[in-house]
Amino acid sequence: MKEKMGTTGLIFNEPLLWEKGSPGRTGISLPRRDVDEAPLDKALTGDGPDFPDLSELDVVRHFTKLSQWNFGVDSGMYPLGSCTMKYNPKTNERQASLPGFAGAHPLLPERLSQGLLALMHDLAAYLGEITGLPAVTLQPSAGSQGELTGMLIFSAYHKHTGKPRSKVLIPDTAHGTNPASAALCGFKPVAVKSGPDGILVPEAVAALMDDDTAGIMITNPNTLGLFESNIRQVADIVHGKGGLVYGDGANMNAIMGVVNVGDLGVDVLHLNLHKTFSTPHGGGGPGAGPVCVTPALAPFLPVPRVVKDGEVFRLDENYPLSVGKLHAFYGNVGILIRAYSYILSLGKCLKQVSQYAVLNANYIKQRLKGDYHLPFDRPCMHECVFTDKFQQEHHVATLDIAKRLMDHGFHPPTIYFPLVVSGAIMIEPTESESKETLDQFIDAMQQIAREAKACPDCLHESPQFPKVRRLDETLAARSPCLKG
Amino acid sequence: MRYLPHTPEDIRAMLQVVGAADLDALFASIPDDCRRKEALNLPEPLTEWELNGHMDNLAAGMGASPGTKVFMGAGSYHHHIPEVTRQLLLRGEYFTAYTPYQPEISQGTLQTIYEYQSLVCRLLGMDVANASMYDGASGLAEALLMTIRVSRRKTVAVSRAVHPLYRRVVETYFAPTGFEVVELPVGQDGRTDLSGLKDLGELAGVALQSPNFFGCIEDMAAAGKMIHADPKTLFVAAFSEPLAFGMLKSPGECGADIACGEGQSLGIPQSFGGPGLGMFASRQSYVRSMPGRLIGKTVDRDGKTGFVLTLATREQHIRREKATSNICSNQGLCATASTMYMAALGGTGIRQLARLNRDRAEYLKASLAKAGFSSPFSAPTFNEFVVRFPDKFEETWKALLEKKMVAGLHLEPYYPELSDCWLMCVTETIDRDDMDTLVKEVTR
């Protein structure tokens, strides 16, 4: 296709839910009443919520129109760096919605839940194989809860050895949630500055690592899209002082089958199933954040754990050193089913996923580096980081570039992150995009670079095509209106 | 592989642009001693139909509703999910979107979640609601941590009638912090006994659940007054069955400062316990201490109404060392599902549905009482209640599994003193015939 992707579609206006409907309507059918009414004390009862009454068609049109204002991976390329917006295979939805899975009560007796217990057992084993860290909990509900679990394990481990510690080292190229996760466990986060080439310097870690430091949280590949090539030396330094190494595995998409994380000296690692293992992000979750650890740390994992006794799977609570429970039941099982389905669909070919993800990112990096400033011109992993330095002389900023991309029919990349790069534009194409799509995206980015010179105001005025134009975020924060 | 689009020609052409000899050369920045030597020991890829067969087999052995009649709630409820919710949710524009960082092309998610916040406030009688938490249990832990931030005190009290698994999650969150959790006892009637509250010293917050784990409806209005006898103590109203607020007084009406709980009942499949939906709401004055994401209304450059993520300064990506919580992604799509569900029910529907749940549960309670099985607790209940069965009921219970019936949850593992008690649940998906069959079977 030679034409620009973006165009104005037929977009409908739609009011808020409670501006529609009429009292007395309903969009559901209730079962027949086959029992008498049982009165209840007036002191306990209320009037019920003031919800609008809508018919089924009112509801269908409302949410269909709203959906048309949204961009998803199914709509087009979504190169949001660090978020890994890959294709979500449709078969995964079929598997997760099987009545035996979707209708399963979490407290069913083990005899009636063998299917899901087997699935969880095998998924944990596959994740152990992929990371090289064999002991796995599937319980954390998101990557950030996985980080919290990891920090709870750090805390429990040091308490168990008899020497609680108070600090955790966090490189400036780590994910944004890391310091908050450490702080929730009572650790003081200590920032480590990366070297001039964007990766960790062992000497910088050695200077900060002491015997009151619980360990380090390393995102690898880091948020600049670079592999932390000194990680083994760093791990040796941390282990030498009795600390532990946490790996933020959110970027695992780059290294499946290429790196055995366990061999790098990492003790604890979380995975984001909704990134690497293709489960849909749903506009903000649910995700799942399994945590993989070395055999030595296995006793600290959350309970219950799925174990296999002969041919029977059961839930085992008997781990006295466990950090406890992170979820009322066993985590986001619906997401686990999707990830399991993805792993079985690809099996051994998961290595190709990482190879193509890295190929696609390097292809974009190479083809755009004349048009956009590349702060770290090294081979990248699955994402590459540009800046707006070349465009600044025309008074065009990263935000303008991002907004203009919408008019071209693409979701913008991640912007102003990582924080260590001023005006960052972080592109992660993932392995699911074809060469033709990448070429269209590159064309759009190059055209925007030309527009920045020729007509900077066109960029300041973008986006033009979506339902709304640039929104006033300051107003939203200054006088919050959070409900209607 | 159908998810990987590259042909050998594409790969060759792209490698040439990149300047790499082959795919392995792309990883040159990874030192040799960091490379994996052995191939992944994973199965051969399955075709789509092989995968279907495998998954059908795994699912077939599950004792799931509706094939199995499950008279068990305890924080996970089998309600009918209207097809309209299920199908609308599958629209790729919702399903395959990310957190709405670029508001201009995320207005669908943003308006839906704004509507979610509004409906949650109406349901719970509160001023502000966040855009979801992981689940009811971690939501309660976050609520209690919030009472500590607000009051600057260090101890919280939690009723023993709060879901025992939620309390274990609270313990986990509190373990490394140095803050303390004390337990409030349960009275004879099955409600929390608050008479010792004033002897507990300065409390940051007090958490009750209603209906509580035993299904008993707490006298929340009276509890609110007692808790607020100390004006600095926050009243946390937890729940695991939000449908109850279709007929019960809302937490806000009873004076709660924070209302939090599990929203799975509102149009979300049980899925072996997750994903669910952590619902979380509070009074306006605490909005800046609240964890989680918030959506706010604003205007665009032309003055048109639109929605954005807001008050992000509490969040990790601005002042990362000072964040209120580490939550970023959570249960957005589940919040979307519950919005669709609440929209389909409407005010009229939710009142009728709540009533039907209560009436059917009361029918079973009365039938069991008539058959000679009484409840140890006298407090009124919603769609769950505790019943005392004679010794050796466990064998009957096991025999009923063979007849595809789960006759309640044995309370002994959670409350050893209630070793002869079972927690029963009836929703609109269980009809009178099902209940009559159950009563006949247990009296046999």
From TrEMBL, chain A:
Write out the GO MF terms: glycine binding; glycine dehydrogenase (decarboxylating) activity; pyridoxal phosphate binding
- Record's catalysed reaction(s): N(6)-[(R)-lipoyl]-L-lysyl-[glycine-cleavage complex H protein] + glycine + H(+) = N(6)-[(R)-S(8)-aminomethyldihydrolipoyl]-L-lysyl-[glycine-cleavage complex H protein] + CO2
What domain of life does the native source organism fall in?
Bacteria
* Matching InterPro entries: Aminotrans_V_dom, GDC-P_C, GDC_P, PyrdxlP-dep_Trfase, PyrdxlP-dep_Trfase_major, PyrdxlP-dep_Trfase_small
Location of the Aminotransferase class V domain: 153-282
- Which keywords annotate this record? Oxidoreductase, Pyridoxal phosphate
GO CC terms in record: cytosol; glycine cleavage complex
According to the entry, every stretch annotated as the Glycine dehydrogenase C-terminal domain falls at 354-455
UniProt cross-references to SUPFAM superfamilies, sorted A to Z: PLP-dependent transferases (SSF53383)
For this protein, what is the EC number?
Answer: 1.4.4.2
What general EC class does the enzyme of this chain belong to? Answer: oxidoreductase
BP GO annotations: glycine decarboxylation via glycine cleavage system
Q: What's this chain's function?
A: The glycine cleavage system catalyzes the degradation of glycine. The P protein binds the alpha-amino group of glycine through its pyridoxal phosphate cofactor; CO(2) is released and the remaining methylamine moiety is then transferred to the lipoamide cofactor of the H protein.
The name under which this protein is listed is: glycine dehydrogenase (aminomethyl-transferring)
TrEMBL record, chain B:
Q: Name one GO molecular function term.
A: glycine dehydrogenase (decarboxylating) activity
BP GO annotations: glycine decarboxylation via glycine cleavage system; nucleoside metabolic process
Please write the reaction equations for the catalytic activity of this protein.
Answer: N(6)-[(R)-lipoyl]-L-lysyl-[glycine-cleavage complex H protein] + glycine + H(+) = N(6)-[(R)-S(8)-aminomethyldihydrolipoyl]-L-lysyl-[glycine-cleavage complex H protein] + CO2
- Which EC number(s) are documented for this chain? 1.4.4.2
Keyword Ligase found: no
* Keyword annotations from UniProtKB, A to Z: Oxidoreductase
Keyword Isomerase: yes or no? Answer: no
Which parts form a coiled-coil structure per UniProt?
Answer: none
Q: Which CDD domains match?
A: GDC-P
Q: Which SUPFAM superfamilies does the UniProt record give?
A: PLP-dependent transferases (SSF53383)
The UniProt entry, under Pfam families, shows:
GDC-P
What does this gene product do? The glycine cleavage system catalyzes the degradation of glycine. The P protein binds the alpha-amino group of glycine through its pyridoxal phosphate cofactor; CO(2) is released and the remaining methylamine moiety is then transferred to the lipoamide cofactor of the H protein.
Q: How does it assemble?
A: The glycine cleavage system is composed of four proteins: P, T, L and H. In this organism, the P 'protein' is a heterodimer of two subunits.
Similarity field: Belongs to the GcvP family. N-terminal subunit subfamily.
Q: Can you name this protein?
A: Probable glycine dehydrogenase (decarboxylating) subunit 1
Which species does the entry assign this protein to? Desulfosarcina ovata subsp. ovata
Gene encoding the protein: gcvPA
